[in-house]
Amino acid sequence: MQTLKLRGVNKSFGSLQVLKDIEINVEQGEFAAIVGPSGCGKSTALRMFAGLERPSSGEALAGGHPINGPGPDRMLIFQEHALYPWSTVEANVGLGLELSGVPKSERLKRVNAVLDKVNLSGFNRYYPAQLSGGMKQRAAIARALVMDPDVLLLDEPYGALDALTRLTMQNELLKIWSGSGKTMLLITHDIDEALYLADKIYVMSARPGQIVETIVPGKPRPRNRNSDSFAAHRHRIMELLGIEET
Amino acid sequence: MISPLRKVWRQIWPFLIAAGSLLLLLQLGNLQKPIVIPSVPDVFVRLFKELGKPAFWQSLSSSLYRLGIGYPIACLLGGLLGLLAGLSRSFAIYLRSLIGILQSIPPITWLPMLMILYGFGNIPIITIIIVASFFPMALSVMNATEGVNPTHLEVAKVLGARRGQLLRKVYLPETLPAFVTGAQVAFGNAWRSLVAGEMVGGVAVGLGYASSFAGEVADMKGVIMYIIVIGTIATFLDQFALEFLKRKLLHWRYIKGGGDH
Q: Could you tell me the pTM of the whole model?
């Protein structure tokens, strides 16, 4: 099981600084979220944990060890499902197992178990083009879950979904996480989504991205989106992002 | 749903009409100049006569043999070069320039040189088939490889793919449509240069040779019959065989419905 840590991280692409002095500390089994305006570098921070980017300075650590590249214990779920259109759901979800040489019969067993978990049982032979937006994202989540990672990194996974589907998917995600002991880090620009799901929310400023405040909703789940504390936190985050006047 | 038979029919009838219009022109020519231009029925009578002769089948089979060696080599070579160029920027620059030069030289131009080198026979013809048809494949695969979705690559990397696995699991399936389109364009080039090569020289058997020989002895029925044979074979291979292969290989592209986009 793993913790996630960014220590004094700066990141520049050429002369463009995208991240500045970032400190992030996600405990093992914790559900954390980063909210911020688009282009603030929050995805870049997440991609460091996935091993797809390196800090220009500072350290990115998983389980206390520096991250040198992708690893089977840290799975990234992409913004646009990124399923392979030429493969069936079964082949897409089983890809990671296939790459690591798991035999076919065991692969199928594990794929079926995880499809069941994300409510996609029976869709093995479907192609991504035959699925709705929500089902595609479920398959993408299944593709990560089947590897049984310690860490799930989610890059605006529901950004492309309609509002109703998004609410359903949020509940499903909570169900997957609760009791699993997995460490979760969610990137979102949906303030309510962060407040509904996360134990801890990092609020990031516009470029260069800096953590301006860490908010801990501290309420038991399921959370009431209309409660006073929920509204107060929402107001505070909007204030920090400069969307609402003080 | 439409029945498979009707689907096939819907593909075939435009060809029948197009072919019919060409035959109609021929028939009109026959009315104008009956001494020079044979009538359509006469040409088909000749065709059926030829179908019974071993010489005809020898022409056909030696042409198809040259195509059957040159075209697959061109596809493999073009695919390989295109893939390499898609992965390496500097090689892509070189390949684009090379193709630019090769495209400005009609493939048939190489034939005299090849005949001096290899003498009469299959090798010069097969070589110009390769020269003429590898580059549409290379260009098509190169563009597709450069355009591989970076997120698809990252997905595989996150799931633990090594270099070879990236090639097999992402690059190949993602460039397969371009490979098939490239193969279709390459086929046209291959066929044209095959027939041209056989007509110009270097061999004494083959469809191109037979048609140019018919021309030399002013055998108009034979000339027209070979035009029909050459056109029919190419149309069949391109529009039906390759099209069938395309649908078979890329069946996921022809799936519709279910999803909301």
A: 0.82
